[in-house]
Amino acid sequence: MPAAFENLAIAQHRDTLWYATIRGGGYRPSIRRFRVGDYVYLQQTALTTLDVTAGRTILRVREVLPSGVLMLEGRDGVVWKDHVRNCVPCHLPNVDGNMDPSLAIVRAGLRCMLCGSTDQAAHMLVCDRCYRGWHMSCLTPPIDVVPTGRWVCPRCTSEGR
């Protein structure tokens, strides 16, 4: 009888450690295989055990690098780079894969390459090659209307990118 209680105590201790590992975020599932064209969510670090770890933005796999890094692309055309460990597959059947550059949002604190100001983010263009900001009024000649499609800055154009 004492041996049974010892085995029960060992099993209970093992289960307690396993539960603490899972709830504490120490358990990572096996690495998934992704293919070009798959849709994924980026995992976020949860602040508490009740937080959802998958983000709400759905990204499309653009390229799979041999190192396990994925080149991801959002609907706004912005390219992300993240490891497969941080990606969760999206199984939604109705994902809209159309690109819409008008969804791009200028990140806070982005400086204009010409004047250096962070003001007037609504009138700032972001280069699709180097991701630098340019005020439409600072360009030569100034641009009045946001161009449709992809936009490449004067610096990338002169460098032949």
TrEMBL record:
Presence of keyword ATP-binding: no
Keyword annotations: Metal-binding, Zinc, Zinc-finger
Molecular-function annotations in GO: zinc ion binding
Domain PHD-type: 109-159
Cited InterPro entries: PHRF1/Atg35 (IPR047157), Zinc_finger_PHD-type_CS (IPR019786), Znf_FYVE_PHD (IPR011011), Znf_PHD (IPR001965), Znf_PHD-finger (IPR019787), Znf_RING/FYVE/PHD (IPR013083)
SMART domains (UniProt xref): PHD (SM00249)
Protein origin, superkingdom: Eukaryota
Record flagged with keyword DNA damage: no
SUPFAM superfamilies: FYVE/PHD zinc finger
Pfam family, one: PHD
Stated name of the protein: PHD-type domain-containing protein
Species in which this protein is naturally found: Marchantia polymorpha (Common liverwort)
